[in-house]
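Long-time lurker. I teach an intro course on protein structure, and each term I like to show students one example going from raw sequence to a predicted 3D structure in token notation. This year I'd like something fresh instead of my usual example. Would anyone be willing to generate the tokens for the chain below so I can use it in lecture? Attribution to the forum is fine with me.
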Amino acid sequence: MLLPLLLLPLAWGALAASPPVPPESLTLRVLQTIIFHNASSTDMEGTALLGDLETHSLACSTCKICFLQPWARQGLTPKEWQDLEELIYRYLSDFIRLVKALAAEEGEGYPIVTQFSIGCELHPNGSSRRFCDAGMNGEDFVSFDTDSGKWVTRQGNKLTLKAREILNYNKVVAITLQFLLRTTCVNQIKSFVQHGNESLARQERPVAVVFARAPPPAGTPAPVLLVCRVTGFYPRPVRVAWLQDGEEVVPGWWLNSSGILPNADLTYQLRSSLGVEPGAGHSYACRVQHSSLGGQSLLIPWEQSRPWGPGLAVGITLGVVAVAAVAVVLWRSRRRLKSSFLATEQLPAHLSAHVQGFPYI
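-- Reply from a regular --
Happy to contribute to a lecture. Here you go:
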């Protein structure tokens, strides 16, 4: 079972001079999904992530590696990348044949979805954590213990036990995977940080707004729900807190958060809500702390004294001005009309009679 050799892109250059350790913990992770629709139809896709930044992807039909960052080709020559693609294609083909054979032998039904997460995490003190985990149909399948060089499993079904037996039989794969995770993966993180520091150090300031959901009906004891929406920030770590009368609100049922979610432009968003008692007379604000703010905090108060939004207020103001303008026009028209009527009463009798015949007088 040679699927772990998907990490061979990290093998070349592993013994080269090692760049400095990154200032913060950073993870290099290879994710791969293979979907077995039936015994003759299979789809697969793969991607590599440095932290939360996608660096490479794998075309499912040809096993061609796509470079998603300008520095993603660093560390290997074009010939080495080509050799790597050929290795990936060959070993993925072997893995697909093995899964189909096991499914037929153990009576496993289709579809079958296998997912792999392989890589390492490098810490500022130089220590590292390695991982290689596999799942099948949404459940834990097997994992690789880099210390013992053995595959382990939490499942006891026949298919999982058979896969573990085959994996542990191939000693070459175990030795190769240990080397890749302990040495090559760590050195490649350092190399990527050196060449891709500008992308990894990108800072995007958050934008935040605070609003209240529609208040509960009169007589309902439900609290008013305040919402703080924070979006557009990068990198991912952020801290959002609520302040009541200047003091941070302690965690409880009254606090809720969506968690950090991705945006389409490679930034992140988060929503935090706070339940408050209506009419309690307290002041509330949302505080956002993020690395892009240079050590300062973003503070957004809830303006509960404003009964409507600024758009509605402007609309009402313009409406009042328009009504006043129409009233002035009508008043001036009536004055001119009245003056004209009085002037006809002072005309000679023979002219006044003709003028009074007009319908608008």
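Some talking points for your students: The chain has six helices and 17 strands. Residues 1-17, 305-331, 337-361 have pLDDT under 50 and may be disordered.
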